[in-house]
Design a protein that fits this description.
By secondary structure, this protein is of the alpha/beta class. The chain has 3 domains: 204 residues, FAD/NAD(P)-binding domain (3-Layer(bba) Sandwich); 112 residues, FAD/NAD(P)-binding domain (3-Layer(bba) Sandwich); 111 residues, 2-Layer Sandwich (Enolase-like, domain 1). Helices cover 33% and strands 24% of the residues. Strands 1, 2, 3, 4, 5, 6 and 18 form a 7-stranded mixed β-sheet that branches. The protein has a 5-stranded antiparallel β-sheet with strand order 19-20-23-22-21, with helices on both faces. Helix 1 runs parallel beside helix 10, helix 3 crosses helix 4 and helix 3 packs across helix 8.
Length: 464
């Protein structure tokens, strides 16, 4: 049995959902193949469950620290099973609405459940059916990378794919990996009363982010009770009864379970792509500036292409791929993506760090502008003064923005847009910002740049 389509999307996660809906809305005949559940990692094992748990943890911490806003603090009575049930209820509501396969069928997308295999550049086999198509878009995502640590497999471990499937989490955890997932879950679990040791192989947590802000956030984690160890290479894992021992040269961490958060690798196996000549790159399927693989009718987007491992970039890439397939103009794959680690305070990133800017433009052309959050009136009123806004210019144009503070993930978008538009810092002062908001910090820094610029033209002032 064979069916003919304009586009077959393999994988209905963050990228595949966007591609399927976009293509269907512009009148194309679309099929989508999903081997597991619509929504992919974001809905079931990533963004959604982690942020639901973080919300519970943030509320618990607010109860403990209520004295900072003049209220009586109280230690929350935490039912971990109830927190996990609430998390699953959020997932289920989303699965019944936006990520419901019937929603896509109503758009005209034919959804096939099962494994997909590419027979050639225009044919996909799924659920015993041959899908003939003009184009194929691979959106198969990624899965956790498991480090080759002696005894880890025998002892057993959790990943983001299994932690949220539990009825309730363990009472204590050793978290391996100080990237965004490790940091977010270490803090959230600690706030929910779970003992946490966080081990990072490198010299600091969150190595992609602005070091000064990472240092502030690390101090916050330690102050809240997370045991943080950097420069720690785990040598072996062993068990003694129900307890697990994670052994490194300078420390042995003991807990009920281990959460592995040491990165991700693309889901490229089993698709048949290599047999067709689809080339792999260092971090996934190789794509060109149009997101096209070495087989011209096959494109890849999201984690499987290995460019940026974020839900928001996956959706953006998938939409770009569809445009490049079917419209006469061509869009280059995005090369600039902001991100945010949803710790408390949040840590958001866009563009270059100070060190990266100096390496690219030369130290003499780069300025790093800093504004501690304690200078923000909104931070003062909300008793959230721990953090900082750092803007990087070269020489006057904004090339980097980094924020540590409440809702930093919301704040970063204006700055990311300014970077893309090659705006000068002083130009941001021309936009009126609502007071009091966190974004008032942006206009404060832009105003400083505007004042400096005005001084250069002081000789033009009319004296009378």
């Amino acid at each position: 049995m064979s069916r003919r389509y304009d586009l077959v999307v393999v994988g209905l996660g963050s990228g595949g959902i966007v591609a399927a809906e976009f293509a269907a809305r512009i009148g194309l005949r679309v099929a989508a193949v999903e081997r597991d559940r619509v929504g992919g990692d974001c809905l079931w094992t990533g963004c959604v469950p982690s942020k639901a748990v973080i919300a519970s943890a943030r509320t618990a911490q607010g109860m403990r620290t209520a004295a900072r806003v003049g209220l009586q603090p109280v230690e929350p009575d935490i039912d971990l099973a109830a927190v996990w049930r609430r998390m699953r209820s959020v997932q289920e509501r989303m699965a019944e609405t936006d990520d419901n396969p019937d929603r896509f069928r109503a758009m005209g997308v034919e959804v096939f459940e099962g494994e997909a295999r590419l027979l050639d550049g225009h044919t996909v086999e799924a659920a015993g059916t041959r899908l003939d198509t003009r184009f194929i878009l691979l959106c198969t995502g990624s899965r956790p990378t498991i480090p080759p640590i002696d005894g880890l497999e025998e002892a057993g471990y959790l990943t983001n794919e299994t932690l949220f499937a539990l009825e309730r989490p363990p009472q204590s955890l050793v978290v391996l990996g100080g990237g965004p997932t490790g940091v977010e879950m270490a803090q959230a679990c600690n706030r929910l009363g779970i003992g946490v040791t966080l081990l990072e192989l490198g010299p600091s947590l969150l190595p992609q982010d602005e070091p000064k802000l990472v240092e502030i956030l690390t101090r916050r984690l330690v102050a809240e009770g997370v045991e943080v160890r950097v420069d720690t290479e785990v040598e072996r894992v062993r068990t003694d009864g129900a307890r697990k021992f994670v052994e490194a040269p300078a420390v042995t961490a003991v807990a009920d379970d281990i959460l592995v958060a040491t990165g991700r690798r693309p889901n490229v196996g089993g698709l048949g792509g290599e047999e067709l000549g689809i080339k792999l790159a260092d971090k996934g399927i190789g794509v060109d500036s149009r997101l096209r693989t070495s087989v011209r009718s096959v494109y890849a987007a999201g984690d499987v292409a290995g460019r940026f491992l974020f839900t928001h970039s996956a959706g953006h890439e998938a939409a770009q791929a569809v445009r490049n397939m079917f419209f006469p103009w061509r869009a280059r794959a995005i090369s600039f993506v902001p991100w945010c680690t949803f710790s408390d305070p949040e840590l958001a990133h866009a563009g270059l760090t100070g060190a990266q800017a100096r390496a690219k433009y030369g130290a003499e052309k780069v300025r790093v502008h800093e504004l501690p959050l304690e200078r923000s009136d909104r931070a003062r009123t909300d008793a959230e003064e721990e953090g900082m806004l750092i803007l990087v210019t070269a020489p006057e144009r904004l090339v980097g923005a980094h924020a540590l503070g409440p809702a930093a993930g919301e704040l970063i978008h204006e700055l990311a847009f300014a970077i893309r538009q090659k705006a000068k810092l002083h130009e941001l002062s021309e936009h009126v910002h609502v007071y009091p908001t966190g974004s008032t910090s942006i206009v404060m820094m832009a105003a400083e740049a505007a004042y400096e610029r005005a001084k250069r033209f002081a000789w033009l002032i009319r004296r009378r």
